[in-house]
Amino acid sequence: MQPPPFDRRQWLAGAAALTGAALAPAAEVKTPKPFGFMLNTATIMGQKLSLTQQIDVAAKAGYDSFEPWIHDIEAFVSAGNKVEDAAKRLKDANLRVDSAIGFAQWIVDGEADRKKGLEQAKRDMDLVRRLGGIRIAAPPTGATDKAIKDLFEVADRYAELCKVGDKVGVVPQLEVWGFSKSLSRLGETALVAIESGHPSACVLADVYHLHKGGSGFGGLRVLGAGSVQVFHMNDYPANPPRDKITDADRVYPGDGVAPLVPMLRDLHQLGFRGMLSLELFNRTYWKQDALLVAKTGLAKMKAVVEKALSAKR
C-alpha cells in the first residue's frame, strides 16, 4: 500500500536527515588508495573504437577500472566474439569493471513497458556480470520528459530492479540525471534509494548532473559512506549557463568552475573510497587521439584529488 500524496519538498527535507544512516549498502568495494580511477568510455566514444580497443586504451593510460557502455558490449558480441574473451583481456590488463552504462526502462509508468524494461535490465546485467562487472547505472530512462510525482512508487520500482540485480549478481546504481524531469536532483534520488528498502540501494552521482539539475554539491555531505560507490567525474565551464549547458560542454576535471576540491574532500570525509570515473562527451576531445585523451583526463583527475586531500578547511 502506497502512502498518500505528499509535498515533495517536505519529504525531501526529511530524507536528508535519514540518508547518512539508511543508505549504506553491505557490498561496498573499496580501493587501497583514497580513490580508484575509472575510464567511462563515453570519454572516447567519438573515436569509434571497438570494445577491445577501449580496454587497451584504459590499460595503457593507467586506469584502475573500466566503465563500458552496454551497446559496445553488444556490438562486440554481434561481431561473433565472446564476452568472456573481453573479460580475460580486462583481467590480464589488471582492470576492474566497477560499473557499466545501460538504459533499461525500469522506471516507466506502463506495466507492460516496465516489465520489458526489467527484462532488458536482466540481459544488460548478465552481460556486465560475464564481463566481470559488479554494478550498472540505472538512470530514469523513459521518464525524462515528464516528472513521476509519486517518488514512493518509483522507490518500489527501483526495489524491483534491485531484486533483478540480486538474481544476476550486479548492483543497479540509481543515477541522478540533471536534465530529466524525473530524478533530476540528488535529494529525490536519495529518497527513492532510501524508500526502496533494499540493502544494495545506492546512488550514482555526477559533477555535471548535480550542476545541471540544480542540486549543487553540499548535499553529498549527508550521504552515508556506502551510499555512493562510483562517482562520475568531469567539470563544466562558467558559460553556457546552467539552463543552457549540455553534456557536450563537459571538460576535464580542473579545467572548469565546479567546486571539485571541496566536493572531493567531502566525499573522502564521508567515507567514500570508490571509483572516480571520467565521463566526458566533449566533441573536441573526440577528435583527438583516444590514448592522449585518456591519459590527460587521468592526470587531471589525480591532480584535483591531490589538491583536495592536501587542502585544509
Structure description:
The protein is of the alpha/beta class and 313 residues long. It has a single domain, classed as Divalent-metal-dependent TIM barrel enzymes (TIM Barrel, Alpha-Beta Barrel), CATH 3.20.20. Helix content is 43%, strand content 9%. The protein has a 7-stranded parallel beta sheet with strand order 2-1-7-6-5-4-3. α2 packs across α11 and α6 packs across α7. It is globular, with a radius of gyration of 18 Å. The termini are far apart. The N terminus is likely disordered.
Observed structural traits:
TIM Barrel, single chain, seven-stranded parallel β-sheet, 313 residues, 43% helix, alpha/beta, 9% strand, disordered N terminus, globular
Coarse shape: globular
Q: What is the helix/strand order? A: HEHEHHHEHEHEHEHEHH
Secondary structure tally, helices: 11
Q: In the CATH hierarchy, what is the superfamily? A: Divalent-metal-dependent TIM barrel enzymes
> What CATH architecture do you see?
Alpha-Beta Barrel
For the residues shown, what is the average pLDDT? 91
- The portion of residues forming beta strands comes to 5-15%
Amino-to-carboxy terminus distance: 46 Å
Q: Determine the CATH topology.
A: TIM Barrel
Task: Give a quick account of the main beta sheet: strands, pairing sense, barrel closure.
Answer: 7 strands, parallel
Could you list the spans in which at least 5 consecutive residues all have pLDDT below 50? 1-22, 24-29
Structural class: alpha/beta
CATH uppermost class: Alpha Beta
In which range does the helix fraction lie?
Answer: 40-55%
Q: What's the arrangement of strands in the largest beta sheet?
A: 2-1-7-6-5-4-3
User: How many domains?
Assistant: 1
Radius of gyration: 18 Å
β-strand number: 7
